[in-house]
Every structure is written in C-alpha cells, then in structure tokens.
Write a structure and sequence with these properties.
The protein is α/β, with parallel strands linked by helices. The protein is 55% helix and 12% strand. The protein has a single domain, classed as P-loop containing nucleotide triphosphate hydrolases (Rossmann fold), CATH 3.40.50.300. The chain has a five-stranded parallel beta sheet, with helices on both faces. The two termini are 19 Å apart.
Length: 214
C-alpha cells in the first residue's frame, strides 16, 4: 500500500513541533505529490473551535468523557473536511496526532479505558487508520522538564497542568500501542539531540515515500 496518511505521536515534551518544523520543508522539496500538513485537535475551522474549548485552562470542571467525546467530534470534522479530501485527491497527509493520542491521553491518562476510547474513535473515523505513525518517545519526566524549561511564562493548557502520574500513564499507553502495532508505528528516540531526531525522522519518511521522492 502506498504510504499517504502519516501521523506523528508522542507524549508532551517529545518535541514534535520542533521536529516537524525541520522535516516538513524538506519533505515539500522532495515529494512529487501534494502535501497537506495538519494537526489535531483542530485542522479545520470548526475543529479548531472545539480545540479551544478542550484545551482552555479555565475548563477544569470538564468531565473526562465529555473531553473524549469532544476530541472524537473534532477528529470526525477534521477527517471529513481536510484529511479524506486530500487523500482522495492523491495527496500525502501528515497529521500531528490522531486516534493514538486519544487512546493514550483519555483512555489511559484519564482512566476511561483504552478499548472504550478506541471504539469511540473507530465510530468517529469510520475505521480510517494511518498508513504510518512516527512515535517520538521520551520518558514522562524528561518531557515534563522540557515543558517547564521552554514554556517559561507561557500559559499551560489543561493537559500540561496534569500531575506526573497522568503523564506516566500516557507514556505507558503509547508503549503498548507501539508493541501492538509494529507494522504501523515506528519509534524514534526523542531524547537525542534535535538535529539527530529530525535526521532519523526524515530518513523514515524518505523510505516510506520512496516512490514519490525525488
């Protein structure tokens, strides 16, 4: 199968944004197909409004299942408005987070249940799964320290404010997803230097997009 739907995953502090900032311009330069780069939650003007609601630090009273349902609703809108049309045109989609994030954060982190969240999102996505997922792995403690170091006076969102045990559960769930999906998920050690992480990530993308890479 041609690799056209690619997702990036990782716990908070894994450095996804920094890696994507380095990698995406090089992918655009070498890829023969249309490239659509997007994110979750969000990616569409309706889904972005749901994102604001989910991550607003003032919404501390939000119920865990409400949160999971809002993520799934945002994902459905994003999928139908952005991802599926791009794939139908023959383009390549790179998405920052997808269903794996909900399984890890809401299923494990919030304690709702990983299978329950997977089932909910199976309905939302009508079974659409990525062809390739690049998982940037850092221990929870490392990720949280990076957040504290780099955010400085910036406001933390609702998930950043969670206790360390929450982030440990998220990390453990990601490792289970990696173990259970070896053909889809490729792990990159994100504790390495940023340039090394970006170089390894680009090498993975080049290999999976070889037929469309010039």
């Amino acid at each position: 199968m041609t690799t056209r739907f690619i997702t990036f995953e990782g716990p908070d502090g894994a450095g996804k944004d920094s890696v994507l900032d380095i990698v995406i311009p090089q992918v655009r330069e070498h890829l023969h197909r249309e490239l659509v780069v997007t994110r979750e939650p969000g990616g569409d003007h309706i889904a972005e409004q749901i994102r604001d609601l989910i991550l607003d630090p003032d919404n501390k009273a939000m119920d865990e299942r409400t949160e999971a349902l809002l993520y799934a609703a945002s994902r459905r809108q994003h999928l139908q408005a952005v991802i599926e049309p791009a794939l139908a045109r023959g383009g390549v989609v790179i998405c920052d987070r997808f269903v794996d994030s909900s399984i890890a954060y809401q299923g494990a982190g919030r304690g709702i249940g990983e299978q329950a969240v997977a089932d909910l999102n199976g309905f939302a996505t009508n079974g659409r799964t990525p062809d390739l997922t690049i998982y940037l792995d850092v221990p929870a403690a490392v990720g949280l320290e990076r957040i504290r170091t780099h955010r400085k006076n910036q406001q933390y969102d609702r998930l950043d404010q969670e206790e360390a045990a929450f982030h440990e559960r998220v990390h453990d769930a990601y490792l289970r997803l990696v173990h259970n999906n070896p053909q889809r998920i490729v792990t990159v050690d994100a504790t390495a230097a940023l340039q090394d992480v970006a170089a390894e990530t680009l090498s993975i993308l080049r290999a999976h997009l070889a037929g469309d890479w010039q």
